[in-house]
């Protein structure tokens, strides 16, 4: 699969470097990111949930780490020394999965139940970033123009004042 050249877009956009990096990374998607299987769902206007199938992992064998615009979920199964498998079909290998997060998305909660790890995310825009309506007012005339307007009034109007 070829890569996409974003150079023409760089000439007409400002501040979208991170978006282009994300698109470029998506083009190089690796099959290794498929383990463990996961779902991403939208649960509300600004709420999301990532659910990962981590059967066989205990809560202390999983870690969830957040960094700016990044969520890292990792698992490392504890070594079991005196277990002899006749068939070892459960995939409990170590993993690390990275999720790129949009600005102002934070982890709200995480739960492990029935082999499913659920990570709830919420987007909280700062008050300064929320849309607001701007009132349109009338600009005041400069004082010099008002003075000239007063001088140009008819004599009758000036005497009445």
TrEMBL record:
Belongs to the small heat shock protein (HSP20) family. Gene3D superfamilies: 2.60.40.790. It comes from Azospirillum lipoferum. Residues 29-139 form the SHSP domain. Keywords: Stress response. Residues 145-161 have a biased composition (Basic and acidic residues). PANTHER family: PTHR47062, SMALL HEAT SHOCK PROTEIN IBPA. SUPFAM superfamilies: HSP20-like chaperones (SSF49764). It holds the Pfam family HSP20. InterPro entries: A-crystallin/Hsp20_dom, ACD_IbpA/B, HSP20-like_chaperone. This is Hsp20 family protein. It comes from the Bacteria. Residues 134-161 are annotated as: Disordered.
């Amino acid at each position: 699969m070829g890569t996409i050249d974003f150079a023409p877009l760089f000439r007409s956009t400002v501040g979208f470097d991170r978006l282009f990096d994300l698109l470029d990374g998506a083009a190089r998607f690796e099959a290794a990111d498929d383990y463990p299987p996961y779902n991403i769902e939208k649960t509300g206007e600004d709420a999301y949930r990532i659910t990962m199938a981590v059967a066989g992992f205990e809560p202390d064998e999983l870690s969830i780490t957040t960094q700016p615009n990044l969520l890292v979920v990792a698992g490392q199964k504890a070594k079991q020394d005196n277990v002899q498998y006749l068939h070892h079909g459960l995939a409990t290998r170590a993993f690390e999965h990275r999720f790129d997060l949009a600005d102002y998305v934070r982890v709200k909660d995480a739960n492990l139940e029935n082999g499913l790890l659920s990570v709830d995310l919420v987007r909280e825009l700062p008050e300064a970033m929320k849309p607001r309506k701007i009132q349109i007012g009338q600009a005041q005339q400069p004082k010099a123009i008002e003075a000239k307007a007063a001088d140009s009034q008819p004599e009758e109007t000036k005497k009445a004042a």
